[in-house]
Amino acid sequence: MKTYDWIVVGGGITGAVLAYELATKGLRVLIIEKDTRLSGATPYSYGGIGYLFGTSELTRLLCQEGIKCHRQLSAELEADTQFRELDLIMTIPADEDPHKAVTNYAQFTITPKLISVKDACDLEPLLNPDAIAGALIIPHAHIHPGYTTQAYHQAFLRAGGEFAIGKVMELLQKRNSIQGVKTINQTYYAANTVICAGGLSRALLKASAISIPLYFTHAEMIETPPVNLKLRTTVMTANSQRFQLEKQATTPEFDPLWDEPENELVPPILDPGAIQFLDGSLRMGQISRIITNPYAKIDPVASENAIRQEVGKVLPALENIPGTWHHCLVAFSNNGLPIVNAINNVAGGYIFSGFTNPWVLVPPLAKRFANWVTGEEDNIITQLSSTN
């Protein structure tokens, strides 16, 4: 019976980065991913690296570590992540006060610069000047989610890591310890197991009677094939509603409702935005829904029409281009910070999930986590453990 040092449940970006860092420590690591082709949030991500979005001493430090990592990541992984530094334009709706929008971002590492409608359209000619009252601009960075995750997978394998395909049904528990996992067809054993299953992490832990303040949204976006038009910047709305949605859905009165099926706790929101990759393909969206059933059915036609309509107001050229609607789960916590922790009162069990800003926070925290579990003290991991 083969036993690993670590089993990493989930092969998306969170699990891939963490498994790679653990493997480079000389540990025997197995990634278990439910699909041969990634189907969670990772393949449908924008790949944005919001390294100036830190709002506290803790997150600012991690953001700076994250962007430093990405700037040399292609060389480290020996593969092109398509890293780029480019402007993020956050559009302000035509009926809103531009100066008020600035105050909503005063807590960032740097306050975004307010620019006029003309300046915004000069930077991004695809913008509709009649739909905005101005825009905020901030330095930003971007990678290709698929290429970056694949690069981590390959580096993980070169470091001696192993992959298995299978849907994890439950954790293998004996008394107060986790000794591995059970998939539909097989049981795998390890001294330590870490859950990196994104939006499905909550259901997996619940199946093993483990309660963690981890939640999920149903996120929806449209992916297009390569197109001829050119989007020069990343475009998002300055009036983002996603974080307010997450905060509202994790208030104490809603918490018991998360364990009841089919609850839609708050109305869905739509934050229009778009990004174009180097091959010319686009991703635009997104709708976020709080439905407690991770397998809930959503009307793709109505959702796609809603995304196209809202994105089309700001970027008219994108409204009718061919594309495919996608739906995935996005994990989040109840305090805006990721959950990076040992599972309380369960030996050998860990959680590494709930990343609201994954592309900038996952690399530095994975490195710190790997150092921490191999004996190094880390006050950042300690801080995150104490907040959950």
From TrEMBL:
Superkingdom field: Bacteria
Transmembrane region(s): none
GO cellular component, one term: cytoplasm
GO terms assigned for molecular function: oxidoreductase activity
Residues covered by the FAD dependent oxidoreductase domain: 5-372
Keywords for the protein's UniProt record, in alphabetical order: Oxidoreductase
Keyword Membrane: no
Keyword Cytoplasm: no
InterPro entries in alphabetical order: FAD-dep_OxRdtase, FAD/NAD-bd_sf
Xref: Pfam families: DAO (PF01266)
PANTHER family linked: FAD-DEPENDENT OXIDOREDUCTASE DOMAIN-CONTAINING PROTEIN 1 (PTHR13847:SF287), SARCOSINE DEHYDROGENASE-RELATED (PTHR13847)
Protein's name according to its UniProt entry: FAD-binding oxidoreductase
